[in-house]
Design brief:
2 copies of one chain form a homodimer. The model of chain A has no long low-confidence stretch (mean pLDDT about 85). Chain A folds into 2 domains: about 80 residues, Arc Repressor Mutant, subunit A (Orthogonal Bundle); about 190 residues, D-Maltodextrin-Binding Protein, domain 2, CATH 3.40.190.290. The first copy, chain A, is built from 11 helices and 12 strands. In chain A, α1 packs across α2. Chain B binds a DNA duplex (30 and 30 nucleotides) through α2 and α3.
DNA sequence: TCCGAGCATAAGCGACCCTTGGGGATGGGC
DNA sequence: GCCCATCCCCAAGGGTCGCTTATGCTCGGA
């Protein structure tokens, strides 16, 4: 039904014939038999509606239409191989760009490590990073604004349906333990571990809205409602506030990785609370080599 | 055996999918069914080695490789349609160039008439004209220096094998009668007809080498050898020489068509001698529309 | 909850393409 | 002048590819 069109295959054959001057030589160059070349040319001449080459005794010459077609074939086939090469480069991790969205504590720890290793292994792949908290980052993923979204979730939280990411490819990276942070002079400073309920009376400093929501949930299950005096998603700020004695906090361990905890000290909390840090992508994108490679490096960095 | 290549058909489908945003719409646009599009894209993705588009819920988006391929497809398909159009123009007589070689008396009579009609019918086809006498013009045809050769031959001449043009396409144009030319004051001037043998004692003025050879042959078969005082392939010169009373000549009627015969008068010769004027081309070239059209106009002009 | 739209899959079938084998013509070598 | 190698065309066979029909599934919207 879609017949009559000139196909790239025809142009390859024609070019080989024009270059070699004979069907047999073209067939050798193309790695097929001579009748195959003969038939291809017959089909092409049929599509063109005019002879393309003249068999004059020994040599094979082009007609005007044949010359015109060869002239175009050069550019067309060059464009085609260029396209193939570019696609092959993307598929072969020699090129390509991945847009990664991460929450702050991930982008300051996992991401740099993963990208460094990716860069070392595949210098051609470029990864761009944008920061966004989970609800928005997943939205960006779905709307096509990024290829990978680093996100986290609290397994216990029931408010967000556990099936929210069912249509996504989920790569678990690490289980991030939450640790308490108190001023160095605090009464629990040297305790090593503390029950959350024991901090009921303290002023609290909360992190991002999502973490804050989870914090409240956990505290309420422990029998109290925390008095939150400050809330900021900037973890150095949280540490600074704690260090200044303005309150206590419970932060993901990952968030403390890249923050100097001067003036504050950490301690385990009871009950143990963890958040799950995962990389999300779309099913089709998971099969894109550059995306898969980035996911692998992220996983590798998380295992450290 | 030549698999794995990206074909133009794939790019057409991909472009349609990218443009419409859905397989079904692309199928409608391409005039095929939806599974056909689905399979094409699967094959293309297999050849590319990476997904090209992501099925995200309702909408269909391109991956980076898909965008790269679409970007290239634009140029490739444009080049392909340009090639098809150019070939179609040549095949449809809206373009194209024909190189015509003719002997002088043909190029001054038949050719202008034929080219005028060709120009009127197909303004796009251009014909270039070069003058050459038959032995050389056929050589040019065989060596690819022209598409059509106007030539003539003397049927009686045995020296040139009658099979010399067997591998060519021969289009008979006209049988050119040879007429005698004598000065106006000549004793045969008003005779209307004369036997060649009666001119045995006259000084002769011969035309082109080929005609001269034939003239000698005819005269010898009539029992005498002509005394040739002048030989030139420029017919006005021949007429001028005859008009000046320097001799007699036997010329093709066609050659007199465009020459003012002042000072000379024509008469029929016995035995009647004719030369056959034909258009020659190569078998493959005869099927080239522009060549065929030119041949038709030449034949048409000769019938006049 | 039903329904329409859209994509994927499987089976069937036709077309296409390549191969093999043989014939004819051309041009060079002895 | 004859032989032979090369090259192209032709015909037939087989395998693959691509398109179509039919079916099932998912997703959104009424």
């Amino acid at each position: 039904m879609l017949g009559g069109m000139i196909e790239a295959r025809h142009l390859r054959v024609l070019r080989a014939v024009a270059a070699t001057g004979s069907f047999s030589a073209a067939a050798r160059e193309l790695g097929c038999t001579q009748p195959a070349v003969s038939q291809q040319m017959k089909v092409l001449e049929g599509a063109a509606g005019t002879p393309l080459l003249i068999r004059s005794g020994r040599e094979m010459r082009l007609t005007e239409a044949g010359r015109a077609l060869v002239r175009h074939a050069t550019g067309i086939l060059a464009g085609l191989t260029a396209a193939e090469e570019e696609v092959a480069a993307i598929a072969g991790l020699r090129a390509g760009r991945v847009r990664l969205v991460s929450f702050p504590s991930g982008s300051s720890t996992l991401v740099p490590m993963a990208l460094a290793e990716l860069r070392a292994a595949h210098p051609g792949t470029r990864v761009s990073l944008v920061e966004a908290e989970p609800p928005g980052s997943v939205e960006m993923l779905r709307s096509g604004d990024c290829e990978i979204a680093l996100a986290f979730r609290y397994p216990q939280m029931g408010e967000e349906a556990s099936g929210e990411w069912d249509d996504l490819v989920l790569r678990p990276l690490l289980n991030d333990r939450l640790v308490g942070v108190v001023p160095e002079g605090h009464k629990f400073a040297g305790a090593g571990a503390v029950g959350i309920a024991e901090l009921a009376g303290e002023p609290w400093i909360a992190g991002c809205p999502r973490c804050r929501g989870h914090l409240v949930e956990v505290c309420e299950s422990e029998g109290f409602t925390p008095r939150i005096d400050f809330a900021t998603d900037d973890y150095p700020t949280v540490i600074g506030l704690v260090g200044a004695g303005l309150g206590v906090a419970v932060l993901p361990e990952l968030a403390l990785e890249s923050v100097r905890t001067k003036g504050a000290t950490t301690l385990e909390v009871e009950p143990a609370v963890r958040r799950e840090v995962v990389a999300l992508t779309l099913p089709d994108l998971a099969r894109v080599p550059a995306v898969a490679a980035t996911l692998d490096r992220l996983e590798q960095a998380a295992r450290r």
